[in-house]
Structures are given as C-alpha cells and as structure tokens.
Design goal:
With 214 residues, the protein is of the alpha/beta class. The protein is built from seven helices and six strands, in the order βαβαβαβαβαβαα. It has one domain: Rossmann fold. α2 packs antiparallel against α7. The longest helix is centred in the N-terminal third of the chain and has 14 residues.
C-alpha cells in the first residue's frame, strides 16, 4: 500500500527548510510522496501575510519538476480554520487504503497536546517527529509523555504494517530557517538567497510581497 507523507504549514513563504524536511523524510523512509498542505486560517498562529493564492503559487513553483512532492489544496479551498484533525479525516475518507505519515518538527510536536482532538490524530495517520541530531530534550506535559510512551516505535518498518497509530522520531539535519525570519530580512533588503528556492524569491520580487513586514 502507498505510504504518503503529510507536511502542513503556512508556507509564508515556502523555504529550503520546508523542502529539506519533506525531501529528507521521503528519502529516509521511502515514502511514495509528500503532500504539502498550505493552511487557510491557522488556529494557533497569526494570519498569513501573503494571500492563499500567492502562497499556493510559490509552493507550485518551488516543487515543480519533483514528482516526490505534491501540493494539496484542501485547506485553502475551505473557508474554515485549518485543524489538522479535520484534514486527516478528509484525507482518510478520500484515500481509505493509503498509509499517511504526519510530519512534524520537534517544536510543533511538543505542543501537540494543545491541538484540537490531538489524541485522535493517530486514528488517521502515523506521526513522524523530526529531531535535529544532538538536540536536547525539551520538557513536555506528563500527558504527552505518556502518549508518546504508549505509541512510540523504534522500527520504521512498523509504519508499513498498518495505516495509522505509531509515533516515530527521525533524525534530520534541519536548517535553521523560518518564514518570519525571511520576511523580516527581505523587508530590510538583506540577502535571503540561501534561504529559499530561486523561483520563490523571483515570485516575491515580481509580486512585491513582504516589503512592509519589518
């Protein structure tokens, strides 16, 4: 059965850190592909600076020509807040026989117990947590600690054995880049070429984005 990664985010703009995470996870775990899902209304963060149209266009250009990365617009096509549990339910309904792996950075995962119906996420997908090699452990709630202990696996192959239900920690040399940092530097006319794809930077310039976010 296909094993597909799910990487959600605001992608405001998409950058090399997003792409590194998606591509490294796909390669290390031999995923069929990774679906990038831009959020519409993020419930835990401020509203995006760029419109959904611009963010979608930047993603499309950034992943053009890479069959291992695909864009999924189910959240931006909705008028509702972008709750991950609703997205996973929608994916499971559309693809009942696909194994889904929700890809999260460690910082996001450590706060997952503040998400809507967070314990139900494993009913619809596995969760892959991206560790930075050598990263120190952060304090998480006792409830989350117990949940991890109940569902964690050290066998990547176990994600091929069922459609959902396990947590797997994966060491990935992630880049220290954020969209907010890129926006701030760009608005100050600082060089950001190394932080994002050339196609994304060209789109930002052509459409006069992020000029007043300093």
């Amino acid at each position: 059965m296909p094993v597909v990664g799910i990487l959600g985010g605001i992608f405001d703009p998409i950058h090399n850190g997003h792409l590194r995470l998606a591509l490294a996870t796909r390669q290390q775990l031999s995923l069929d592909h990774v679906r990038l899902i831009p959020a519409n209304i993020p419930p835990h963060r401020s509203m995006p600076v760029a419109s959904s149209m611009h963010r979608r266009n930047m993603i499309a250009r950034a992943i053009e020509g890479d069959a291992g990365l695909r864009m999924d617009l189910r959240e931006t096509d909705s008028d509702a807040s972008s709750y991950t549990i609703n997205t996973l339910r929608s994916l499971r309904q559309e693809f009942p026989d696909v194994t889904f792996c929700l890809i999260l950075g460690k910082d996001a995962f450590n706060k997952i117990d503040s998400w809507r119906e967070w314990q139900a996420l494993l009913n619809y997908a596995h969760i892959i947590v991206a560790n930075r090699p050598g990263e120190t452990k952060e304090t998480v709630s006792p409830t989350l600690t117990a949940w991890i202990a109940e569902h964690q696996t050290n066998r990547a192959a176990s994600m091929n054995e069922k459609l959902a239900g396990v947590i797997y920690f994966l060491d990935i040399p992630m880049l220290d880049i954020s969209s907010s940092m890129i926006r701030e530097k760009y608005a100050k006319h600082e060089v950001v070429n190394a932080c994002l794809p050339a196609s994304t930077l060209t789109y930002i310039k052509d459409n006069h984005l992020y000029l007043d976010t300093a």
